[in-house]
TrEMBL record:
Belongs to the LOB domain-containing protein family. The lineage of its organism: Eukaryota, Viridiplantae, Streptophyta, Embryophyta, Tracheophyta. Keywords: Coiled coil. InterPro entries: LOB. It comes from Phoenix dactylifera (Date palm). This is LOB domain-containing protein 1-like. PROSITE patterns: LOB.
Length: 162
């Protein structure tokens, strides 16, 4: 819903006007954001911020951003009612901590992956440079396949060495 105000005739009063025991007029600023079928939204916002403060805040916000402002107020009000001391700050802090933990896990996992790749590459170099392997098991036509961490010698398998 944008800045357009819904017409009031033949409709139920918005949740704000109903809660405040007011007549919901045609130009009701709160009607687009607090419909009659969602009274708990306005009740929470009213309890935390107060109706006059909600109206003042909405007047300070440009029309196109009011819906986002109301969503934010509703979220903050629900959070404050759930956790009167920290409100939405508790959720934000938890998510920030979780994000830092996940960044650390990603860094560790990336380091382990790179270390595993390096070990694999070293083993492949050792195997390819081993003189006894070249002379004994690998004819000149042998092909070494590297498929992301595992390798096999085609001719060794076909010749019965494995």
């Amino acid at each position: 819903m944008d800045s357009m105000v819904r017409a009031r005739p033949h409709e139920l009063p918005c949740a704000a006007c109903r809660t405040l025991h007011r007549k919901c007029s045609y130009g009701c600023m709160l009607a687009p954001y607090f419909p009659a079928d969602e009274p708990e939204k306005f009740a929470s916002v009213h309890k935390v911020f107060g109706a006059s403060n909600v109206i003042k805040m909405l007047q300070m916000v440009e029309d196109g951003r009011r819906e986002d402002a109301v969503k934010s107020m509703v979220y903050e009000a629900y959070s404050r009612l759930r956790d009167p001391v920290y409100g939405c700050t508790a959720a934000i802090s938890y998510l920030q901590k979780r994000m830092e933990d996940l960044k650390g896990q990603l860094k560790t996992t990336t380091e382990q992956f790179l270390e595993s790749q390096e070990q694999r590459d070293q083993l492949l170099r050792i195997l390819m440079d081993a003189p006894c392997l070249k002379q004994t098991y690998l004819p000149a036509s042998s092909v070494v396949h590297d498929s992301g961490g595992s390798f096999m010698f085609d001719n060794m398998i076909h010749d019965g060495h494995y």
